Amino acid sequence: MQSLDSEQASLRQQVVEEDTEEWQRSLNFSGLERVGGVDLSFIKGDDVNACAQLVVLSYPDLEVLYEDSQMVTLTAPYIAGFLAFRETPCLLDALQRLEKSQPALLPQVVLVDGNGLFHYREFGLACHLGVLSGLPCVGVAKNLLQVQGVAKDNEHQSQIAALQKGGDSFPLTAASGKVLGKALRSSDSSSKPVYVSVGHKISLDTAVRLTHSCCRYRVPEPIRQVHKHTHTHTHKQTDAHIKSL
């Protein structure tokens, strides 16, 4: 546990919380052509075998260019606050497979189904994957992580109600005063926000703008597509497992 703590702290120091790419400085993200999405989904009732999934979409059209699904067996134990140590290797492998096989399709930024700096130790899955891959990463969570004084209380609900249209957001401020992320109303048709935080090599404002620009519905398209592909693949694997019994 202590070694994980020190390793996490060391990796945390490598996180870059500002824009590093030319396309990030453009209002319409000129120069951005490929956006990735990653997720790890478990078979129901099984917390060891999972489906690691990567999709790459064109930008701004958001059409699927590439998808990779792999059933994986997680060897690291689950430890609260250190989930990324368990999940990152499988997602990193997917990116590395793509880099070796079709480097021209490597995403220029990855949207991660999970949190980045909006985390117990300000180092969630999106940060971990970003630092180890070297790619800009954004954490996009569907549920609020109640951490560092951020709570799903009446004030939070009032702030959500005040989001008038897609693109509106408000900061998720820790008890220390530090802004850890933003709640974003991602679409006009959905009043339920997503929670965006910096993973690596991107500023929070740019992460929020990018996430909104990738939304046709509530969940940004790279993550929505990764869920569609993951669930299809996982169901096939589950059916094959049942037939083998």
From TrEMBL:
<comment type="similarity">
    <text>Belongs to the endonuclease V family.</text>
</comment>
<keyword id="KW-0238">DNA-binding</keyword>
<dbReference type="GO" id="GO:0003677">
    <property type="term" value="F:DNA binding"/>
</dbReference>
<keyword id="KW-0963">Cytoplasm</keyword>
<keyword id="KW-0540">Nuclease</keyword>
<keyword id="KW-0694">RNA-binding</keyword>
<keyword id="KW-0378">Hydrolase</keyword>
<keyword id="KW-0539">Nucleus</keyword>
<protein>
    <recommendedName>
        <fullName>Endonuclease V</fullName>
    </recommendedName>
</protein>
<comment type="function">
    <text>Endoribonuclease that specifically cleaves inosine-containing RNAs: cleaves RNA at the second phosphodiester bond 3' to inosine. Active against both single-stranded and double-stranded RNAs. Has strong preference for single-stranded RNAs (ssRNAs) toward double-stranded RNAs (dsRNAs). Cleaves mRNAs and tRNAs containing inosine. Also able to cleave structure-specific dsRNA substrates containing the specific sites 5'-IIUI-3' and 5'-UIUU-3'.</text>
</comment>
<dbReference type="InterPro" id="IPR007581">
    <property type="entry name" value="Endonuclease-V"/>
</dbReference>
<keyword id="KW-0255">Endonuclease</keyword>
<dbReference type="GO" id="GO:0046872">
    <property type="term" value="F:metal ion binding"/>
</dbReference>
<keyword id="KW-0460">Magnesium</keyword>
<dbReference type="Pfam" id="PF04493">
    <property type="entry name" value="Endonuclease_5"/>
</dbReference>
<dbReference type="GO" id="GO:0006281">
    <property type="term" value="P:DNA repair"/>
</dbReference>
<dbReference type="GO" id="GO:0010494">
    <property type="term" value="C:cytoplasmic stress granule"/>
</dbReference>
<keyword id="KW-0479">Metal-binding</keyword>
<dbReference type="GO" id="GO:0016891">
    <property type="term" value="F:RNA endonuclease activity producing 5'-phosphomonoesters, hydrolytic mechanism"/>
</dbReference>
<dbReference type="GO" id="GO:0005730">
    <property type="term" value="C:nucleolus"/>
</dbReference>
<comment type="subunit">
    <text>Monomer. Interacts with PABPC1; the interaction is RNA-dependent and stimulates ENDOV activity.</text>
</comment>
<dbReference type="GO" id="GO:0003727">
    <property type="term" value="F:single-stranded RNA binding"/>
</dbReference>
